[in-house]
Amino acid sequence: MEPGVRARTGPPQPAAPGLWRVRTAGGGGGGGASSWLLDGNSWLLCYGFLYLALYAQVSQSKPCERTGSCFSGRCVNSTCLCDPGWVGDQCQHCQGRFKLTEPSGYLTDGPINYKYKTKCTWLIEGYPNAVLRLRFNHFATECSWDHMYVYDGDSIYAPLIAVLSGLIVPEIRGNETVPEVVTTSGYALLHFFSDAAYNLTGFNIFYSINSCPNNCSGHGKCTTSISVPSQVYCECDKYWKGEACDIPYCKANCGSPDHGYCDLTGEKLCVCNDSWQGPDCSLNVPSTESYWILPNVKPFSPSVGRASHKAVLHGKFMWVIGGYTFNYSSFQMVLNYNLESSIWNVGTVSRGPLQRYGHSLALYQENIFMYGGRIETSDGNVTDELWVFNIHSQSWSTKTPTVLGHGQQYAVEGHSAHIMELDSRDVVMIIIFGYSAIYGYTSSIQEYHISSNTWLVPETKGAIVQGGYGHTSVYDEITKSIYVHGGYKALPGNKYGLVDDLYKYEVNTKTWTILKESGFARYLHSAVLINGAMLIFGGNTHNDTSLSNGAKCFSADFLAYDIACDEWKILPKPNLHRDVNRFGHSAVVINGSMYIFGGFSSVLLNDILVYKPPNCKAFRDEDHCKNAGPGIKCIWNRNHCESWESGNTNNILRAKCPLKTAASDDRCYRYADCASCTANTNGCQWCDDKKCISSNSNCSMSVKNYTKCHVRNEQICNKLTSCKSCSLNLNCQWDQRQQECQALPAHLCGEGWNHIGDACLRINSSRENYDNAKLYCYNLSGNLASLTTSKEVEFVLDEIQKYTQQKVSPWVGLRKINISYWGWEDMSPFTNTTLQWLPGEPNDSGFCAYLERAAVAGLKANPCTSMADGLVCEKPVVSPNQNARPCKKPCSLRTSCSNCTSNGMECMWCSSTKRCVDSNAYIISFPYGQCLEWQTATCSPQNCSGLRTCGQCLEQPGCGWCNDPSNTGRGHCIEGSSRGPMKLVGMHNNEMALDTSLCPKEKNYEWSFIQCPACQCNGHSTCINNNVCEQCKNLTTGKQCQDCMPGYYGDPTNGGQCTACTCSGHANICHMHTGKCFCTTKGIKGDQCQLCDSENRYVGNPLRGTCYYSLLIDYQFTFSLLQEDDRHHTAINFIANPEQSNKNLDISINASNNFNLNITWSVGSTAGTISGEETPIVSKTNIKEYRDSFSYEKFNFRSNPNITFYVYVSNFSWPIKIQIAFSQHNTIMDLVQFFVTFFSCFLSLLLVAAVVWKIKQTCWASRRRE
Q1: Which of 106, 101, 96 is nearest to 191 (CA)?
Q2: Is 119 in contact with 95 (CB distance < 8 Å)?
Q3: Which of 443, 715, 1004, 1142 is buried deepest, with most CB atoms within 10 A?
Q4: For 265-274, how does the pLDDT look when each residue is reduced to its tens digit (9 = 90+)?
Q5: Tens digits of per-residue pLDDT, 506-544?
Q6: Dihedral (C-alpha) 38, 42, 44, 49: value to the nearest 10 degrees?
Q7: Chosen CATH of 1093-1223 out of 1.10.10, 2.60.120, 3.30.2010, 2.20.28
Q8: d(CA 189, CA 191)
Q9: Which CATH code for domain 41-211?
Q10: Which CATH class is domain 892-935?
């Protein structure tokens, strides 16, 4: 299956407009309702059909001309006048703020699909400490881009309790319940933001104050509390429990008395007898069936809820560390859960790392290793910190590993990690993939060697894989391999999205293999390994681009992968009478059961789900044992059925698997390189070194084993997704225009050289001593080779083996520096790792080294004056990209909106978190909707105080307007809530507190949070009829006195001033905000019309006169003033100087529109900068063309060699095309010249005729003689 990709090459763009859709009622239990649900689904359906009919009628006319239909407004003169907060030609879209004070009601975005790029905010106001319930009857928005934020209070500074996005309540729900969100402050603030990609049907939300949860689900009655009369609760029917009476218990009375009994007084569940199990005691022990349960977890603080945390199992405890939460003030970094007693405990840790999410955990003995992740509470950076938590002492310590070789330690998030002991007995933690804010999506493996505290990025073999963010991985002890599934990746062609890939990484051989993909793309899911099956649960499965196909943000998909058979199976979803959709959760395995904790599903989850798979011991015969599953792998051993893990510890048994056939050509075509084509389980072959086809297809030159593949640089480079990661590989270069990493040309080293890694190598078989060998290399612009990488060593050893006719044991660039120190020619030390001395070497007499080709190739020492059979030269790669521009600063290092958005669509600025992120990583940078709004071009003020009008102020959800006592529209925009302005009281956690002194009511200041005051004249006028500006003063104009009058500029909003335009007399108006003058004369430029456009042949001085275009004689010039930039031009001027003193000067001018013409002259060319020097010649008005000739005698060209003519074309309208020419030529030909020319031509023709006649006579005479 092709990976699901999002084709956005930048942030979302508007989709093509489509037909508006009316929401219909959803089916299924719980009863959904569409928007504008007022009194039942039947009424709504009629309402929808009525709307379609009305909408079809008004589409051809004014919005309410025929029907008078305005959804949230009134029809006046055939036009809809919308109520506050509503926009659209029929007032059908929300865009503003609303306040709801009724005990119950509905809120919606409108009757049709919501508007692109909109912000809507609702404040539901009850009374202090009242319980307010929000019931989401319908919710459908673009997943991960369009969000609804719910706050438990009257501002966005109140605790955030839910972030909704995607298809929360689809039209067909199955067994899913309608979700509810509860606030307890007596208020609820809901803020909705949508971007510009595509829109969906929106939402319909019912709210009620002090009502029973979910109407007691139809399994109880709503009862008033005796202790607190204002509160109600559900009194559940028998065999139903839970706050909403939504959890059944003791089904079929637990099979009493044989299977168990029902505990009606305690925890209200089935207590099974020893030989029975399951939620209703209906399954045998052991059982051939699987089941899910929700354990009764002992009450604990809600701060347990989190997502993108990590969990590991140690004994009977599940240790949970880190994670994302809405509020870190009471967040516990380290928790443990007792899997036997179902009790949470908080670790007593005094100091340790900052809170983070997207990190990795791996357990080794008593230590938990935590690497990387995003530190949410500081500057939001991704870290490369390595922390170790000791379980016994419950204390943290940091590690600072040494990075080996030329490697790189990548700071990543969304990666995974495993610790294992290699065949070499080295204990290593392997870090897989992840996203780096600097290097992008990484495809590298990182190794941390625990005993030596060293860090290494090893070279891998096999398939060329693409790394990403949010995958899952499991380690299988039997195959000594890590299995990696899914993730969010950047893909070729500037695409990015989810994938369903499955890779296998063999830890000892460092080899990648591509396995069968699942067919279900996802990221931020979980994976565990139980009895030879990798179980995948949940995740984010949304991969839509321009329209929705129903993929949900939150999934409860349950998949199983059979490791032995390379087969995927779909398992039944949990049937737990409640939604269990989620992503960002964790999973561990204990006693063959999977425990899932937390995650995100609009709210942060703190529940635990338990999956009990079938038990192999329950299968009594061989056939059922071998065919057990899906989701379990069993083997028949000595007349007993055993689990795959216990019965196949040595990996010697072969599983019974379905017959597997080779893939079709179409399936193999997806692999673009030889290694990936041959290192997979699909049965492909690499054919003719250019394409991947089925192994069953015919091929003239076939490669079926990856070890025979020649790895091309382009296959490596196109996996590198950022300029920084591309620049680390010297074989690659970054194409700024295409925004992709490309391979450098193959001829970088020159003829006879081989491009190996970062160097060029050349082997020569001539017999030389060390100094002559070094001189030979020097003459080729190189040196004797310093073989410091394994890739160089492997190449040289392979090449010398090819010399079969002669012995080649070449010099290499290694010599003794002093009595005990050997070093390479490039001054790097010899480490005896990539190359080793042969036994007995180095000897005392040798000071230079050569490579001996023996049974085991190695180094030998020889006197430098001795001869050796061959030499190896090395020189650096000459990159054609050496002089290319360096990489731009990564998005994550840009700290302001202006520098973040300065390079087009590469970066996106999040104003609410003040972070700059790469456009192809926006979703993974804010997986839980942390960004309230983003920008790619126009930057809005970063604080409320920078917003100058009330309208701008209330567009930002965190701001309110303080209107000053003048009531003319002046005021201040301040951070605040519905109760008043707020100020920052805690720098560490950005805590805000109410401070009414910032807008004192006793001084007649007025606080506005929902709607602006009626009078909005920006302090330049009072109002009549409450909202009409009486007379704009202070040089302002506009409906709200928001603009400067023509001829003035500035920002008059909120009492600002207007200033007269300064244009040097060459413009009457300027830009109303910047003051840049709109110069009226073509060729004059500058903000104040102070310069001539000298680059385009305009001369003069506009500060003392004007500018002229300098014309050449005997050329015709055409001036097309057609562009928008020419709109303000009404004049253009020219100058010309006669080139010949004895010829008249002719002028010709015509234009497409009428114009005025003035022509003057002066004896000296000063470009008319001094008034009074010029003498008028011609003055015409309202003409289209003019021709004239100026006599050289009359204007005395001979005596005035600097005579200059000035042409002024003015008073024309835009657009216009003008043609003008000055010329000098004679009108009467010189008679002497005429006759000389005439007789010369005549005599020449006469001579030619005489010669032709003579030749003709000669020919005739010759014929007569014959």
Answers
A1: 96
A2: yes
A3: 443
A4: 888 899 999 9
A5: 999 999 999 999 999 999 999 999 988 999 999 999 875
A6: -160
A7: 2.60.120
A8: 7
A9: 2.60.120.290
A10: alpha beta
